[in-house]
Model the fold of this input.
Amino acid sequence: MTEFRRDPIVGRWVIVTSEEPLDVDQFHQLYPPVEKRHPEKCFFCPGKESATPPEVYAYRPNGGEANGPGWQVRVVPNKFPALVIEGDLESRPIGLYDIANGIGAHEVVIETPDHFKTLADLSFEEVFEVIKAYRSRMNDLSQDPRFEYILIFKNFGAIAGASIEHDHSQLIAMPLIPKNVKEELEGSKAYYEYRERCIFCDMWRQEKEERERVVYENPFFITFCPFSSRFPFEMWIMPKYHCCDFREMSDDQAMELAKALKDALIRLKLLLHNPPYNFVIHVAPLKGMYDYYHWHVEIMPRISRVAGFEWGSGFYVVPTTPELGAKRLRDVIW
Amino acid sequence: MTEFRRDPIVGRWVIVTSEEPLDVDQFHQLYPPVEKRHPEKCFFCPGKESATPPEVYAYRPNGGEANGPGWQVRVVPNKFPALVIEGDLESRPIGLYDIANGIGAHEVVIETPDHFKTLADLSFEEVFEVIKAYRSRMNDLSQDPRFEYILIFKNFGAIAGASIEHDHSQLIAMPLIPKNVKEELEGSKAYYEYRERCIFCDMWRQEKEERERVVYENPFFITFCPFSSRFPFEMWIMPKYHCCDFREMSDDQAMELAKALKDALIRLKLLLHNPPYNFVIHVAPLKGMYDYYHWHVEIMPRISRVAGFEWGSGFYVVPTTPELGAKRLRDVIW
Done:
């Protein structure tokens, strides 16, 4: 079985080449499971608070001093930031090219004080606090009129780009809109103008009806392997209510997102031996009206080196179908 | 130093975060050098010709039977193809989604009979024969009216997606146009309509004038690290004559491309200890007029795991400037 599948939002084609039945073990040799080895050197552990820049957010359920132990979630500026917070944005041409100074914010969300726990191991309530930290930092940073977009993402494992093994996610506030976000906005706007409906709402409704690619569902969220997945076992978590703005999420909704996220990550961990992964929270830009957009989370396991040539070509070959992937993920008992 | 840089063709922003001076050794710990270890199991070595599908092209300077030894370059269909050559293209919707059967051709260009040599180690004349093989296969496959695009790329090293260690490149002929190609076409068309000039021609002329990012130049080609590189030591090889169609390259031009390609790869090998890399030949689609486009080669070293979060976000953070990268590449003596 080999076929082309087209993503309806951005028009990306992928080649799906799976043969049934899916042998999950074939993937295991492609990557080492993520391990936690060096607590002694870790600056994200409790007691080392002074080794990071001063915190900008913390959740201390039992109280305690700022920048001391006792926190459950802690957000600090990145010590080696990709962007710097000071200054005004200046953009200028160099012949054909454009250049702008690197204004922005780059923060690290330390998700747990426990060096050996992963986000997948946390309780619903603990993941809920991580999501509340995201929401709070987005709300705060979006007050800065220089910023156009806030990107929240997690790199889990060195293969996925994590340079520090203590579980954390990252937040980058920037004065421009990334190209991939623009593409999603354009695609969903075109659909909205043509059909007068949200493409993401239509997508999750179709997934719910077909069931084949659904992994999990709760009152506010649905998790599925997208029809035109770029990666084996890719999952999207989508709100079942129409909203473009992550910041508007209520506490009730945030708790259901915590359940969906924990569920997706623990299934991935158990099925694939703690594989490296990335997730990215796709949200609307900070300024302007994006009624046609719908925020969601994309989880991308980094288990298939085989698919090397999409770099630079933008063309993905996926060695398993999302239908088989979803089935295997659904079958995980935890 | 941290700054945003914008690619003028597709509008992609990257963050460049380098501090001078560039310490090349910092990269070495991020990837293992590519090694050749298992000639005994190799189906691409001479004498094993019957283990591959029958050849569709070969260069045998001293004669010899088809599908026997004596070849210098050999092209065979991929034994595990992403696409199959038989059948008519059928496309249909599934609700929101589109699906098409996997019609296409997937071929492997075995670049040398020597298991232990890399493309970088070959002579100009040997690389020239590889390029002639690309051109010949493109010419042949473009006769098939079902195909819209031919993608030629090389994965070097397991990290870059190579599943077989004997040096080879790949060719995929497909019935659709990849998204990234469409984006380049749209960007260069918009520029052409606005300025009545080719953006790629303007780009290489600016590079030639600025010199800072240029690595190599010969009568027909120029190699430079692009202004908005996504990867450390990324290089583009661009014809200095305006042409969208790789197939129209003369033998004289192909020989100069061979020199440019060999030069780029040997510099990469010597500077970075035989790193994994991908290259992709960007060409116009097979059907239609693309006068505003300009074919070129993009070489992407796969040495920086650090930059994990561009997956899914499309937003690149590059830990070195192309100016410093080009300087180090220029300084390599071979």
Q: What stands out?
A: Helices of chain B lie at 25-28, 124-141, 179-195, 199-210, 251-272, 310-313, 322-331. Residues 238 and 296 of chain B are 5 Å apart (CA to CA). Chain B has a mean pLDDT of 92. Chain B touches chain A through 71 residues (CB under 8 Å).
